[in-house]
Hints:
- GO terms for molecular function: tRNA (guanine(18)-2'-O)-methyltransferase activity; tRNA binding.
- S-adenosyl-L-methionine binds at residues 96, 139, 148.
- Residues 20-159 form the tRNA/rRNA methyltransferase SpoU type domain.
- The structure is a single chain.
- The protein is α/β, with parallel strands linked by helices.
- The protein has helices at residues 3-15, 30-43, 61-64, 67-70, 79-88, 127-132, 150-167, 178-189, 191-200, 217-226; strands spanning 20-25, 47-51, 72-76, 92-96, 103-104, 114-119, 135-138, 206-207, 213-214.
- The strands form two sheets. A seven-stranded parallel beta sheet has the order 3-2-1-6-4-7-5, sandwiched between helices. A two-stranded antiparallel sheet has the order 8-9.
- α1 packs antiparallel against α8 (178-189), α2 (30-43) packs parallel to α7 (150-167) and α8 (178-189) packs across α9 (191-200).
- The relative contact order is 0.15.
- The structure holds S-adenosylmethionine.
- S-adenosylmethionine is lined by residues 96, 98, 118-119, 121, 124-125, 138-139, 141, 147-148, 150, 153.
- S-adenosylmethionine binds at residues 96, 98, 118-119, 121, 124-125, 138-139, 141, 147-148, 150, 153.
Amino acid sequence: MSPERFARINEMLDNRQPDLTVLLDQVHKTNNIAAVLRSADAVGVHQLHAVWPESAMRVSGNTASGSQQWVKTLRHQTVTDAITALKADGMQVVVTNFSPNAKDFREIDYTKPTAIVLGHEKNGVSDEAVRLADAEVIIPMVGMVQSLNVSVAGALVLFEAERQRRATGMYGNRKLPEDYCQKLLFEQGHPIYAKACRRKGLVYPAIDETGQIIAPPDWWQKMREADPDSPRPERGRQRRM
Ligand SMILES: C[S@@+](CC[C@H](N)C(=O)[O-])C[C@H]1O[C@@H](n2cnc3c(N)ncnc32)[C@H](O)[C@@H]1O
């Protein structure tokens, strides 16, 4: 991996907001799911949630433009399961909904741990989601059409959250666990070694701030035993401890 790409992934990790997420409440069109994923990645959402009772959830690769690699989706069988789990993580649950009880979406404090719920393309959010939510919000509209596309609605709320969080300095300081970040950086920077480690049950070595492996000699030895074809340390690039 080039030093530039390594730096870019590090910067992405520094900006991830593990306490901001989206719950897709039966959103089912693959293009819409992909577009929400892409906006979620853009504002630093680390993990998305989806109520998806069917077997496989599909994402349109073109629309997602690779964001599905960086924002993982956790699937829940029911909206009750999903919201219970989000609340157990200390999230306020904000449902986007056309309702007389809904506030303007800009009135919510998104600097709090927040899950934004988006509803089905035709039926909107489920009654159960509304019942369990802490707040209902609406994006005011003055045109002739009654609603926005769900991914557009999601992007507007997410970027309002981004605006508020940036204003209070919530970007640029790493909140994800360091061991998770190290694991991801190793897998991205050294995919062949990572694969060999997984295959043979070897622990991942540490890497330094430039992405070079910092491993004791016995790690290199075990790697060679595990996989005689594994690449040798590049002279001057792979640092030993
Ligand atoms: C196409 S809309 C669904 C319309 C549906 N007939 C209804 O009454 O909810 C799909 C989803 O987009 C979001 N959405 C679209 N426009 C919105 C708006 N103006 N305010 C809040 N949410 C909106 C909501 O999550 C909604 O469930």
